[in-house]
Automatic annotation (TrEMBL):
Protein name from the UniProt record: Uncharacterized protein
UniProt key word Chaperone: yes
Phylogenetic classification of the source organism: Eukaryota, Viridiplantae, Streptophyta, Embryophyta, Tracheophyta
Domain of life: Eukaryota
Annotated Pfam families: Cpn60_TCP1 (PF00118)
PANTHER family: 60 KDA HEAT SHOCK PROTEIN, MITOCHONDRIAL (PTHR45633)
GO molecular function list: ATP binding; ATP-dependent protein folding chaperone
Transmembrane segments annotated in the record for this chain: none
GO biological process entries: protein refolding
Keywords noted in UniProt: Chaperone
Amino acid sequence: MAKELYFNHDGSASKKLLAGVDMVAELVGLTLGPKGRNVVLQNKYGPPKIVNDGETVLKEIELEDPLENVGVKLVRQAGAKTNDLAGDGSTTSIVLAQGLIAEGVKVIAAGLNPIQISRGIEKTAKALVSELKLMSREVEDHELADVAAVSAGNDYAVGNMISDALRQVGRRGVVTIEKG
């Protein structure tokens, strides 16, 4: 089957792509943070699922409009890469990506060079990472359970298990969790 090609002469392609990005960020953003809310996902072959993590919501979103779906795929890729690198944070990266894409579309429409915008984003990101490294600190042993619990959807039983496992293997150790 031939691929569909879209041109952005009148700005309509950008608007549709951005609509897909906005839809994903709005849905996934509901789950953001320790006070994130639940999202109900309709399942084609079973009962609806109630979830509260952005990664699960992200996997289920499929829009009918092909251009809007390109926007979905763009931010899905950003979320997946963050999750692969950090093990968490896909929701935050999607919300940030939405802001970057929305502002990028505006400044490109105003005539700025996309290559210069990209270089500016990279330069700013490096400066931010350097600043965050200066502000960061090691997590104390007594804080591990809280950090792990937040990552486990505020499940403190799981947080305590992860904390105990990390204490046993040490800071550089690896803990593998298997469903069973």
